[in-house]
# Entry
Amino acid sequence: MKAADVRRSFLEFFAARNHEVVTSSALVPANDPTLLFTNAGMVQFKDVFTGAETRAQRRATSSQKCVRAGGKHNDLDEVGKTPRHHTFFEMLGNFSFGDYFKQDAIAWAWELLTRVWGIDQRRLAITVFGGDSAEGLGADDEARAIWKQVTGLPDERIIGLGKKDNFWAMGETGPMGPCSEIHFYMPGQPARLPTTEPATWVGWLEIWNLVFMQFERRTAGGQLFALPAPSIDTGAGLERVTSVLQGVGSNYDTDLFMPLLTETAAIAGLRYGENPDADTSMRVIADHARCTSFLVADGVFPDKNTREYVLRRIFRRAVRHGKLLGIREPFMHRVCSKVVAEMSSVYPELAERHTVISEVALEEEKRFRATLDRGLGLLEDELARMAKANETVVPGRAVFTLYDTFGFPDDLTEIIAHEHGVTIDKLGFDDEMAKAKESSRFAGSGEEAVDGVFRSLAGEVGPTRFTGYDGGPGGRGTSGDGTLRAIVVDTDRVDHAGAGAKVALAFDTTPFYAESGGQVGDTGWVTTAHARVRIDDTKKPSSELHVLVGEVTEGVIRLGDAVHFEVDDERRDRVRANHSATHLLHLALRHVLGGHVAQKGSLVNPDRLRFDFAHFSAMTDEQLLLVEDWVNKEIRGNVDSKIEVLPLAEAKSKGAVAMFGEKYGERVRVVSIGKESLEFCGGTHVRRAGDIGLFKVLSEAGVAQGVRRIEAVTGVGALSYLRRLEHELSRTGERLKASPFEVAARVDKLMADARGLEKEVERLKGKLASGGGGKDLLAQVVEIKGIKLLAAAVEVDDAKVLRDTCDQLRDKLGSGVLVLAGTGGPEIRLVAMVTKDLTGKVHAGKLLGAVAERLGGRAGGKPEMAQGGGKELGALTAGLGVAREWLEAHL
# Structure
C-alpha cells in the first residue's frame, strides 16, 4: 500500500464515522507562543480541548504537518542515524471533543489496523497507563478492560507502564491525559512478548498513540485540572504506519523517502544501500529537504532568529552531509523540488510556492558554500592544534568565529567535534554571542567602512549621479546601468571580491536611494556579466556619494565592471506611499493641533512610518480621528504630487517647510501634494495621493518632553493591519460570546465584576485579620495544661486566606496551638498550626486528623502545620471541642 493510500484510507475511515476531515494547519502555530512549530495533530485543536474554543463538529480527523527540531520534542541529532527519527513528519489523527471516549477510540483503532489494513493481531501489543502516585493518579483499568474486550488479547499483551511512557503531555502546560500505545513487532514470527521494561522491547515499534484527554495543567509543575469534557486525541505517524504496511524495516525505505534518496544518490553519483556512512548522509538530506520545503512554504526562511535559525541549522546540516558525499555544487534546491513533485498533490502550498522554495534553498546554500571550505579548514586546524596540546574542548571563541564569519551553526561545529572525540565550550560560545548582540556592530564591510573609508575616498571616487526619481513617463526609477568605482571589504579598499564577501560599493551612477531624511535606503540586486550582488542597504557617507552595502552571492566583482541595477520596486513603492503620507500627516497635524507643530524626526520604511513632532500634550482620540480623516480625504481626492527643483530663497518664499535634520544647498528639491502640502524633500514619493491607498494611525505617544510620536501604516500595510485587528476582535468576541460591537461593554462588565470581587476579598481579609467583624478571636483562647489553645470557626472558603489568618493569629499568640475551621463554603476547610517551641509536644497533623474525623473528613500534615476538610457542619462545635480533648489526652 502506497503512503498516499495509507493517508487517504485513514481519513476516509474516520470520515465514514462522522469525522470532519480538517486540513493540516501551518507549521507555525497560530497564537501559541509556547511552541516553535506545530509538533502534533492536536495543536490546532488545543483551545477546543481546554474549552476556550467551541466547534460545531465534535469529531475531526486530519493528516497534520509536524516539525520536531527544538524544545521538548527535538529529534534533530538522531535524524539519519536511526530508521525512525525525522524533523518533518505527518501525524494521522482522529479527535473527539467531548463526544466519544475510550470505547469507540479503541474499537475503531483496532478495526482500522486489523480489518482495513490487515495487520496480523498476533504481531500487536498494547500499553496502558499504570498509574502515578506522585500525581495521585490510579491505573487506567477502564482502558485495559476495553482493550481486552475489543481485541481478545491476553493480559501479557496489555502492559501497564508509568507516567514516562503512558501519560501524554504536549508540553509542561496544556491538555494532557493517560494514553494507550499500539506496538507492532517488526522481525519475523513469532513475536517476542513485551515486558514492563520498555528498554527491552527489541523489535517492537510504536505505531499509534491514543491519548485520553482528561486533564489540563495550567502552570509548569502545577496541579492537574479536569477538562470540561473528556476528549480523544490520537496520533499515528504516517511514516511508521507506511513502513509496517509496506513491510520494510525503516521509514526511509518507504515510498515517502525513496524518491528523495534516489535523487540524492543520483546527484552524488552513488547508490543508496552500498555504504552505511553515505546512506546516513543521504537520509539526513532527504529528511532535511522535506523539512526545508514545508517550512519555507509556510513562510519560515533561514536566518538568525528563533524558528528561522532552527531552519538554518537543519538546512546547513544537510549541506554539510552533501559535502561528505562529495557533492561540489548546490544541490538542495533539486532535492526540495523533488519533495514538491512528490507531495504537492496533498499539500498544494508546495506547488504554489515552488519557486520561492527553490530560490531560498539555492541562495542559502550558495551563501553557506561560499564559506564552508574555509570554515572547515579553520576547524580542522583548531582540532589539530588541540590534539597536539591534548585538549578536549573547542574554545567558545573559535565556535563563535565559525558561526559569525563562516555561518556554522554551533550544533554543526559540535557534531564535527564529536566525530573527532572532543566537545565544544557551549557556555563560552553563548558569552561571545551575548557580547556580539550587545555591541550590535555592523557585520562584514561595516558602518565604519562606509562612514570612514568612503568618506576619505569621496573626493577620489567622485559624486554619484542618482537616477532613482520616477525615471520618466511610465517608469519608476528602479533600474539602470553604471560602472563600479570602489569596493570595500571590512575596512580595506580592494580591486575584487568573490562569493560570500560582505561588501560596500560605489558607482558613477545608481537608482538606489541612500538612507537620508528619515527614509531607509533601497535594497535589490546588482549584476555584472560574471557576478551577482545582493544589496541589503544603501548609505550616504557624504552629501554626494551613495554606497551600496551587501553580499556577493555568486561570481567575482571587479573594479571597472559594467553593472546593471535592479531596485526592489515593490519595497520602494511601499516606502513611497509611507513617505508621501508623512507629508500629509504633517499638514494634518498643523490643521488639527495648530501652527506650532514642527517635525522633530521621522522614519519611513516599507512597513510603517514614524513621525515625531513638537506638541505639548497627548492627543485625544477625537484629534487622532480628525487627523486620520484629513489625510484620507486627501488620498480619496487623488490630488497630484508635484516635484520641483528651486532656488533655496524661492522655495522659502513659497512657504516650503524644511525637513528635520536635513542640510540644503543653493537649489532644493520641493515636493508638493495637493494645494497645501509643500516641503523640502529629497525622498521618493507617489505621483498621486490615491497611490497611498489608505492611512491608519497605529499609536500616539510621548518620546521626550514636548515631543510626541505617531506611528501609522498605509496601503497594503494598513489593509493587513485592519484584517489582523478584525480577526482578533472576532476571536475575542467569540470567547466573550459577544458581537464585535458588544466586546467593550462585555469587558467593562467583566472588569466591574472583578473589581467587586477584589473588594469583597479585601473586606473579608480585613474582617478575618481583625478577629471577625469586631469579635476578637484571641479572646477565645483557653489554656490546657499550660499551653494556649485557640479553636475557632471563621466565615471563609479560601484556603489561602484561611492559612494567612492562622499565620497572623499565631504571630499574635506567640506560643500555642491554633485550629481554625473555615465555614464559608459547602464544606469545612481546616487548618492547624503549632508554634515552634511546642512541636516537640504537639503534632499539628495528628491533632487536626482527630478534629477532621469528628467532622466526617480527613486531614494531615507536619508537626508545625496541617490542613484538611470536613463535611458535617452540624458537628462543628463538637469537632472544635475535639482539639481540647486531644490536648488534654496527649499532654
The first strand starts at residue 20 and ends at 21.
